[in-house]
Amino acid sequence: MKKYILSIGLVFASIFHFSAEEGMLIPSLIAAFESDMKAKGMKLSAKDIYDVNNSSLKDAIMHFGGGCTAELVSSKGLLLTNHHCGYSQIQSHSSLEKDYLKNGFWAKNLSEELPNPGLSASRMVRIDDVTAAMLFGVNSNDNAAVRTEQMQKNMQKLIQDAIQGTHYEAEIKPFNYGNDFYIIVKEVFKDIRLVGTPPNSIGKFGGDTDNWVWPRHTGDFSVFRIYSGTDNKPAPFSTSNIPYVPLHFLPISFKDRKVGDFTMVYGFPGETEQHVSSGYLKFIVEMERPARIKMREKSLGVMDAAMRSSDAVRIKYSAKQASIANAYKKWIGQVDGLKSLDGVSIKISREKEYTNMAATRVDWENKYGKVISDLNTLVEKESQWEFEYSMAIEYLYVGPEFYKLTRGIEDLTTNYLKYKEKGELTTQIDKLIKAADGFFKNYDAQVDQKIFDLLTEEYIIQKNTEKFKSTLSNLKGLSEEIFEKSIFTNKDRYIAFLNKFKEKNEKAVKSCFKDPAFKLYTIFNKDFRENVLPKYQAFDDKMTVLLKNYVAGKYEMFPNDKHWADANSTLRITYGKLEGSAPTDGMMYTEHTTLDGLIVKYNTGNPDFDLLPKMLEMHKNKDYGDYAQNGELWVCFTGSNHTTGGNSGSPVIDANGNLMGLNFDRTWESTMSDFMFDPNRCRNVVVDIRYVLWVMDKYSGAKHLVDEMVLMRE
Ligand code: ARG
Ligand code: GLU
After folding, report:
1. CA separation for the pair 654, 188 (Å, rounded)
2. Is the CB of 320 under 6 A from ligand 1?
3. CA 383 vs CA 272, 284, 387, 590: distances in Å
4. In contact, 185 and 27? CB cutoff 8 Å
């Protein structure tokens, strides 16, 4: 806490590096920023935003499914998030007969809302600094193992104490590479039902063409509802559950907007890496990202073509394709941005400043004088292992899909004696049989074979090794064998194998070892587990130790800078204003887009901009109701809020605590903000809540949902 108080008064005086908009702030420390936020127009107090004893904005913000953010907007547990955050749920309820991707879906009443096994939404109960308690009894003279053991003990005790006698869950997370620790106590709801979604032609309008790009016209929202037991506490799915009554829900900001309006984003940013060294940034920009981009370019080429030529394949691959394409395109933007800003040179000059500052005092020189050169030397010597690690992830985890099945069977063949002893073998196999349904529902062997052919070749090129030469001397033959004979590329063969396993385990294990897909997996996986992974982990551990020290030095030697801990999937606040940007020389982005602009994008021959006839009709009639501003229906707007992946679905909140829209993206030029934030160009992209409500009410005939909400016209 102290360091935030120390630094806050001087935020404006800070002469370099940081604008007021940079940073993802910890909600329990937000009081330190209250006056700055008020100066920017906010009318709320810090306690309105975060309070443990009374309800506050925090209680309306949910961690959705672990990777996105969602917000409560009614007293009956109505929950908004992005369309792309609910995408796998929407897809899982879709079929050729009920094509919710194409046509949308709206439950007419509670009984039509669709359950989603495995989906959760979590409310943060409190977030507290427990650094001192975590370090209790930890002696800096002890070796790392002893220290870790003591910290583990402290952690268990703290968690136990925090949740005792409650239905809460808790975890402790390191911040600033372990300079600080926070405990996060949460209430996890498990019965989350799908209430409605617009069609892809609204929720995913612009598709991959417009993804990460401004100007944008995507209605990226979907609607869920949290159900609880009759005691209003989390409960597993049950037909007797009732809509959850939240401690707080967000009223809707239903009034005109203008440039300069205060905006605050409250959500769960996943990961930023602001502190990496110049050498590491160079490695990312010049080596790691380009190789990953190349791998994905190949698999996406196959998927895109197959999805265009068949509706069945389109439905099967839509969610998988979207997730691969998303990071792929972001990385291209990151590399572009970091190059055009010359991020590496900026890092180098900051590093000089740091080392020069350390040289001004003996104790600083001892602690921090060498850390920069240590960081960059480490990258030079060992970053190769991170490269190999990334390539293995791209190949074995993002590439050919059948590797997912081989992983499951690897576990079965290795541990079957243990499972047998415990009498668990049949249950284990039944689990795999059940999972196979989900896997093959979305699997097309022809698509997978093409991906296999291209990526296997590329993987070997990237690894730049002779090691697998004999194995792969006849890649074409191997590929044919795998896709004609292997148990992993055909559902019938796979299920027959699992059934055989139940009766004749030894025999099944033997036949598995002869399977061509399993054999290949074993060779690559062995190399990954035994050769790559340990070296990558060692590299990463050394890096963490150095970065911990480097960051401690930043706090100590530059107390007047605005410091913030990198995103780590915990609840954060970032604030700025509604504004456009001038991303490159000679170019201006205005701050909002409209339905007129959406219609202009239609009919250019690109299927990403397809619309259903209804939209054209609605636009012609200009039936905007109360949802327009000066006759224009705003679709999206941009803000100067520092966001990242995980902030999807986050509420963008106005000066009074009302919901202006849902965050869902950043502009192309901003994607580099995960490494380096540039206040001139970094903007988050938001779908205006008035458009969301118009789509519900006017376009979809789901006015009953709008009626559940509270619209604030002031
Ligand atoms: N870029 C946004 C995010 O990172 C939206 C992704 C979904 N849209 C898409 N066309 N793939 O999540
Ligand atoms: N679409 C991203 C998400 O899923 C948010 C965009 C970003 O990375 O800023 O979280």
Report:
1. 27
2. no
3. 19, 10, 6, 41
4. no
Domains and CATH numbers, the chain: 27-120+190-273+566-712 (2.40.10.120), 278-556 (no CATH)
Amino acid at 679: P
Q: 125: which 2 tokens? A: 């109960």
**pLDDT tens per residue, range 287-343:** 999 999 999 999 999 999 999 999 999 989 988 998 999 999 999 999 999 999 999
Lookup result for tokens 């897809």: 91
Nearest-atom number in ligand 2 for the CA of 643 is 9
- Amino acid 584: pLDDT: 83
Ligand 1 nearest-atom number relative to CA 645:
4
Question: What is d(CA 393, CA 690) in angstroms, rounded to the nearest whole number?
Answer: 41
d(CA 406, CA 528): 15
Residue 6 reports pLDDT greater than 70? no
Q: In the chain, what's the furthest Cα-to-Cα distance?
A: 75
Given a contact cutoff of 8 angstroms between Cβ atoms, the answer to whether 553 and 653 are in contact is no
Q: Which residues contact 22 (CB under 8 A, 6 or more apart)?
A: 562, 564, 642, 677, 679
Of 648, 638, 646, nearest in space to 578 by CA: 638
At 19 the pLDDT is: 42
Cα–Cα distances in angstroms (integers) from residue 192 to residues 111, 156, 677, in the given order: 13, 30, 35
- Cα separation of 494 and 41, whole Å? 61
Question: Could you tell me if 197 and 100 are in contact, meaning their C-beta atoms sit under 8 angstroms apart?
Answer: yes
Strand-pairing partners, residue 180, are: 175
- In whole angstroms, give the CA distance from residue 539 to residue 536: 5
Amino acid code (one letter) for 607 = P
The model's pTM: 0.91
Task: Please check whether residue 132 is in contact with residue 154, taking contact to mean a CB–CB distance below 8 angstroms.
Answer: no
Which uninterrupted H or E stretch holds 80? strand 78-81
Helices (H), 559-612: 595-601
Assigned token pair, 356: 């020069």
* Cα(686) to centroid(ligand 1), Å: 12
User: Whole-angstrom distance between the N-terminal and C-terminal Cα of the chain?
Assistant: 35
Output the ligand 2 site: residues, CB below 6 A.
Answer: 68, 643-648, 664-666
The residues assigned a catalytic role are 84, 220, 648
What does the radius of gyration of the chain's CA atoms come to, in whole angstroms? 26
Closest ligand to C-alpha of residue 70 is 2
Helix (H, G, I), strand (E, B) or coil at 222: strand
Average model confidence (pLDDT) across the chain = 94
Q: Which of 655, 663, 656 is nearest to 689 (CA)?
A: 663
Say how far apart CA 352 and CA 26 lie, in whole Å: 29
Q: Which of the two residues, 16 and 704, has the higher pLDDT score?
A: 704
